[in-house]
Amino acid sequence: MTVPRVRCLHTPMTTERIADHVKFAYWVPNVSGGLVTSTIEQRTDWGYDYNVTLARTAENNGFEYALTQVRYEASYGAEYQHESTSFSLALLLATERLKVIAAVHPGLWQPGVLAKLGATADHLSGGRFSVNVVSGWFKDEFTHLGEPWLEHDERYRRSAEFLQVLRKIWTEDDVDFRGDFYRIHDFTLKPKPIHTPELFQGGNSTAARRNGGLYSDWYFSNGKDFTGITDQIVEVRDHARTVDREVSIGLNGFIIARDTEVEAREVLREIVAKANRPAVEGFRSAVQQAGSATGDKKGMWADSSFEDLVQYNDGFRTQLIGTPEQIAERIAAYRRRGVDLILGGFLHFQEEVEYFGAKVLPLVREIEAADSQETLSEYRVPVLS
């Protein structure tokens, strides 16, 4: 009798690792104007009270993470902005389980100062504070504050040092670091965080992928189709393998879940039709230099169309638009390609987060359970008597 060849439970793909369950995060609307640059109605608000209610709703509807945005001055439809680290701490103190990721800019933060803030936030929140390192795309924010604006790859070299310094200060004593951008001399942080905060690296470029693989816990991608995200996962995890690390993958997606696909597609059509064209074009002009400044043209927004940029992190490209069943199937397909987390944006945050938790997320879990059962059956070895 021939015994079937034994394979590992999760068959290795080019993406190497498949999560048992995909996690969910949402964009915190701490910046005015909503998540689309359009005059369509957006029943959302950038204020504190609305965001506390939303955070509590999210953690009770299956969302594990929230990401606060970072802007320092008015730009492209975002007239008002709450600062990300302080707003993150406020949400942490108002919730019980939600992990909140604060976006920060190296160059506007000294890593030792942020490490101190992060350690305090860790203690106050019971280990729920994380950091998303954003290398920067908005030149005016730096120059208006009197800080130098570095070229694309230099910004990511600075971010690489920033990530290394944060982790060292949180985990080591008597830290010495001699880099091109940061110099730390015999520094010991007390108290250290109880749980080392997770580090996220955002981007799409070759430099971002390298940082994600070598230095961060998570790599965040702008919205991408299956091919686009798979290319990034392979490259990020190739880098991680060289230093014997594992990196998790997060993917941005703007979610339009409706009872019928026709309804969902009509919402997308209206969003784009009512785009604030001057704001979108201004944003496009500001950000596409980030991609074109890289030698291989792989930077964020390098190939984004006008329609893509109406959702300013390419969220439409992930195509999480349709019925709950269609969206759940697509999320499951991303998971099978190595995506660990979906970072969702919504038109009407409060009601749509609830709808997602009630209608979409249970279907995702059903598909995951079926996938797991199918995999177990496929790789079960017969017992020989």
From TrEMBL:
Top EC class of this enzyme: oxidoreductase
Domain of life assignment: Bacteria
EC number(s) given by UniProt: 1.14.14.5
Name of encoding gene: msuD_4
GO biological process per UniProt: alkanesulfonate catabolic process
Gene3D superfamilies referenced in this protein's UniProt entry, alphabetically: Luciferase-like domain
Domain Luciferase-like: 23-340
The entry's keywords: Flavoprotein, FMN, Monooxygenase, Oxidoreductase
SUPFAM superfamilies: Bacterial luciferase-like
UniProt lineage: Bacteria, Bacillati, Actinomycetota, Actinomycetes, Mycobacteriales
An annotated Gene Ontology molecular function: alkanesulfonate monooxygenase activity
CDD domains: Alkanesulfonate_monoxygenase (cd01094)
UniProt-recorded name of the protein: Methanesulfonate monooxygenase
InterPro entries tied to this protein: DMSO2_SphG, Luciferase-like_dom, Luciferase-like_sf, SsuD_RutA_monooxygenase
